[in-house]
């Protein structure tokens, strides 16, 4: 069995971290671009190769219809949920989407868990390269306010990426865990997590006991549809309006230009966190000139004030559920990139009447906490215990479309409830159960979670006794089991999720994706290897045509020619490792040639200088 | 609901087969045990069935049991142990939530003793409050009619104010009910300590039942008023 890691699968960036045995503290894995941040962006090349992260980000500007960002906003949702967002995304939602969204990228169609799985696989590869061994067990974080379907989608993504998902941990709680290490504290902590796509507020109590520290969540609230993306979308909408009014250019038909504009506006947003003013220069498509716009921080803040204010409602509700006032909170922690915005910091400080903590990097802290939890679970060495809660009440639909709540929100998990069911009509053979999440009275206003049918032996009405146990596990995911009390037998129930993939679908995807996974990775390696080989061969040909080549000994020349042919031969095949090996050989063979050229170039330069000085 | 008796069902440990006295872990081999059918939340914490509880003490017990029972301990254990852990820790959390709040604590006790009976008719007002309830309901009706008739906003504002004041009065009276319940808790504990007989305990339980019903009634009334008032905003 390989290493265990913690993963923050974020809306904008994803990270992978591990517990460093040398320091006893968590650390993020650096990616190939010198940062632990992997943009949560996936792109599909025309030849079918899958790109993730930085390479995919570049495709946003050139092939936006084949590229997807912020897929987290689509996880565990149906097509009706994302209607208004669709217009903002350049990629296409496939028409066959019903209760599982399907996104069309190029000529391939994917579900959000599959896309998230690509990101997870990329991170996994980073870690495997770093450790030099297999990584197949992970703790993955989710927004605290994610519902059951969104959690299942995340777990499904982990499975599709070939990871054993030990636990899903709530992001604010993970942050508290990382933060608690940093400075040993106890008391009441509020974690304000404002990320790219989601907002969470969690109120925790930190208690030191004989066995260690307990992180007990008292309450949690949030909005899974509120984040930095909304700030960006607002800026983009206003910019597009202005461009239309001032220059008469409608950007609807220029999706790549829209992405370019979005990129500039995001950079401006970042600038305004440290500067009072900044400017955006945007080249209008069709050569219609430029849009030059100066932004001041004050103006930006007036635009986004109402979005920031939307975070305060959930904060108040979380405090009310925890039966605390803002002044009773001892520490406030800020998590998520959007908390870098000065207005956000001011508002939080104003609300709680104390300065929030920002010592830990708001981008990394969640992944670090996940790594700590992963280590706790895997190593069994524990001096920290997380007691988290379920964010939404669990209920069953009863007569008249009313919801009967069976597990209240903010119940510590694992949590369970038992309900007894019987038949209403003689010889009824099935009892339909509809499970929902939410705080409203009516089923139609709550989130449909799943449906299932209890089998009942025929008999008079009211005779059957089926006991159903609802259990929310430590990852916040619902499990259901049923027992026929009269027969004394367990009943296996097939739960149909309202949003999301059934087990059979996942199995199928796993089979397909395991094949594809190898293929996709290999495909990409092959393309890259061939490209590099081509570049080297062309350069070699050019060098051989120059004067210095004549100074090569016969065997040296032969070695170059032979390794060039061998490389060409390998390029025609599909073994990327062979291509790389032969490329190495060619590079070694051309070393002397390169040296000759270098010396020649140097002496020319020196001569030129002397001539120049004359 | 069967009334609780003190017979212990002799269970055996699923792992080593030795007798397990219904505790969380087997005394002999240490493996986590399944829940026995007749679970008593008080016993779960190792507490007697008494109503006066120190919340700090309860929290300490809750934390101590959480360390032992939480699924974190059983990630790499057998399937059976993981299931037991899920069962027990979910029971622990439910038990803690129920016992921590005095109202749910006494409701639980009464239900366990087979003595919890809700008000015969949910609408039945406690006799001493009849007049005030009547007045409040009248104001509520007036407000509803005024709103339906698209009526005079000054009138509605006046009615809203009256209602808000009445609701506050009722809300405050809850404090009185809670104080009464606390006295009954003390009486109950004393009765248990003195080994009081069935009849004496029943009397106390009837009184607690009545207090709980009064409490529910007032809370529902106040909630109803608040609902109407929020419609006005």
Question: How would you describe the overall organization of this protein?
Answer:
The complex is a heterodimer of chains A (614) and B (233). Helices cover 40% and strands 26% of the residues of chain A. By secondary structure, chain A is α+β, with helices and mostly antiparallel strands. Chain A has four domains: 3-226 and 310-387, Nucleotidyltransferase, domain 5; 228-308, ATPase, substrate binding domain, subdomain 4 (Actin, Chain A, domain 4, Alpha-Beta Complex), CATH 3.90.640.10; 394-501, Substrate Binding Domain Of DNAk, Chain A, domain 1, CATH 2.60.34; 505-613, Substrate Binding Domain Of Dnak, Chain:A, Domain 2 (Up-down Bundle), CATH 1.20.1270. In chain A, the strands form seven sheets. In chain A, strands 1, 2, 3, 4, 11 and 12 form a six-stranded mixed sheet that branches. In chain A, strands 18-13-14-15-19 form a five-stranded mixed sheet, with helices on both faces. In chain A, strands 21-20-23-24-28 form a five-stranded antiparallel sheet, with no helix packed on it. In chain A, α12 runs parallel beside α14 (576-589). The longest helix of chain A has 42 residues, at 503-544. The radius of gyration of chain A is 29 Å and the shape is globular. Chain A starts with a strand and ends with a helix. Residues 610-614 of chain A have low confidence and may be disordered. Chain B is elongated. Chain B has a two-stranded antiparallel sheet with strand order 1-2. Chains A and B meet through α11, β19 and β22 of A and α2 and α3 of B.
């Amino acid at each position: 069995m390989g290493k265990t890691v913690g993963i923050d699968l974020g809306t904008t960036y994803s990270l992978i971290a591990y517990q460093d045995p040398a320091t006893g503290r968590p650390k993020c894995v650096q990616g190939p671009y010198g940062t632990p941040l992997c943009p949560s962006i996936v792109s599909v090349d025309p030849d079918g190769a899958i790109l993730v992260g930085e390479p995919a980000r570049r495709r946003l500007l050139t092939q936006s219809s084949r590229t997807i960002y912020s897929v987290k906003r689509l996880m565990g949702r149906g097509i009706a949920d994302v209607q208004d967002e669709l217009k903002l995304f350049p990629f296409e939602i496939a028409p066959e989407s019903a209760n599982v969204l399907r996104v069309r990228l190029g000529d391939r169609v994917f579900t959000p868990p599959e896309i998230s799985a690509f990101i997870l696989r990329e991170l996994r590869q980073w870690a495997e390269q770093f450790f030099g061994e297999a990584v197949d067990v992970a703790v993955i974080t989710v927004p605290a306010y994610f519902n059951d379907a969104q959690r299942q989608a995340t777990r499904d993504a982990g499975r599709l990426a070939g990871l054993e998902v030990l636990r899903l941990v709530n992001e604010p709680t993970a942050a508290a865990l990382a933060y608690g290490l940093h400075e040993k504290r106890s008391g009441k902590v509020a974690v304000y997590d404002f990320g790219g796509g989601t907002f969470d507020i969690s109120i925790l109590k930190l208690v030191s006991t004989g066995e260690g520290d307990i992180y007990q969540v008292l309450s949690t609230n949030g909005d899974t549809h509120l984040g930095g993306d909304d700030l960006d979308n607002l800026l983009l909408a206003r910019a597009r309006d202005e461009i239309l009014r001032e220059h008469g250019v409608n950007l609807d038909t220029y999706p790549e230009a829209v992405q370019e504009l979005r990129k500039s506006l995001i950079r401006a947003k970042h600038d305004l966190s440290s500067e009072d003013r900044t400017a955006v220069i945007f080249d209008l498509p069709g050569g219609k000139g430029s849009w030059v716009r100066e932004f001041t921080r004050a103006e930006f803040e007036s635009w986004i004030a109402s979005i920031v204010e939307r975070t305060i409602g959930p904060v108040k509700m979380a405090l009310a559920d925890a039966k605390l006032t803002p002044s009773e909170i001892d520490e406030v922690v800020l998590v998520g990139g959007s908390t870098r915005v000065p207005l956000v910091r001011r508002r939080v400080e104003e609300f709680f009447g104390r300065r929030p903590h920002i010592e830990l990097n708001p981008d990394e802290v969640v992944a670090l906490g996940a790594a700590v939890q992963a280590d706790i679970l895997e190593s069994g060495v524990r001096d920290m215990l997380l007691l988290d809660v379920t964010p939404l009440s669990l209920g069953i639909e009863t007569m008249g479309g009313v919801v009967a709540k069976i597990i209240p929100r903010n119940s510590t998990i694992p949590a369970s409830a038992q309900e007894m069911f019987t038949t209403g009509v003689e010889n009824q053979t099935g009892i339909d159960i509809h499970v929902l999440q939410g705080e409203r009275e009516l089923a139609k206003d709550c989130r449909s979670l799943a449906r299932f049918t209890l089998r009942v032996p025929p008999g008079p009405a009211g005779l059957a006794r089926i006991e159903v146990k609802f259990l929310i596990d430590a990852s916040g995911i619902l499990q259901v089991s049923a027992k026929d009390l009269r027969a004394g037998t367990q009943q296996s129930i097939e739960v149909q999720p309202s949003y999301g993939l059934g087990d059979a679908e996942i199995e199928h995807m796993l089979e397909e994706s395991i094949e594809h996974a190898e293929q996709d990775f290999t495909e990409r390696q092959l393309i890259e290897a061939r490209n590099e080989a081509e570049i080297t061969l062309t350069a070699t040909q050019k060098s051989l045509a120059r004067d210095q080549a004549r100074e090569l000994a016969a065997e040296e020349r032969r070695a170059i020619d032979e390794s060039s042919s061998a490389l060409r031969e390998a390029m025609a095949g599909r073994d990327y490792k062979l291509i790389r090996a032969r490329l190495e050989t060619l590079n070694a063979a051309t070393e002397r040639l390169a040296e000759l050229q270098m010396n020649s170039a140097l002496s020319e330069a020196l001569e030129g200088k002397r001539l120049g000085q004359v | 609901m069967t009334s609780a008796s003190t017979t212990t069902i002799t269970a055996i440990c699923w792992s080593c087969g030795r007798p397990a006295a219904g505790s969380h872990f087997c005394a002999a081999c240490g493996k986590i045990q399944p829940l026995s059918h007749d679970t008593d939340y008080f016993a779960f914490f190792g507490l007697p069935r008494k109503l006066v509880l120190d919340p700090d003490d309860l929290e300490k017990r809750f934390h101590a049991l959480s360390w032992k029972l939480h699924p974190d301990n059983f990630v790499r254990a057998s399937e059976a142990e993981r299931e037991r852990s899920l069962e027990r820790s979910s029971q622990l959390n439910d038990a803690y939530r129920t016992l921590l709040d005095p109202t749910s604590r006494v409701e639980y006790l009464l239900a366990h003793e087979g003595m919890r009976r809700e008000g015969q008719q949910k609408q039945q007002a406690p006799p001493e409050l009849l007049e005030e309830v009547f007045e409040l309901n009248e104001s509520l009706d007036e407000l509803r009619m005024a709103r339906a008739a698209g009526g005079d906003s000054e009138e509605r504002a006046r009615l809203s104010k009256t209602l808000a004041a009445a609701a506050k009065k009722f809300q405050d009276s809850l404090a009185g009910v809670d104080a009464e319940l606390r006295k009954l808790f003390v009486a109950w504990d004393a009765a248990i300590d003195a080994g009081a007989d069935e009849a004496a305990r029943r009397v106390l339980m009837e009184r607690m039942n009545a207090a709980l019903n009064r409490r529910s009634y007032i809370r529902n009334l106040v909630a109803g008023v608040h609902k109407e008032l929020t419609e006005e905003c």
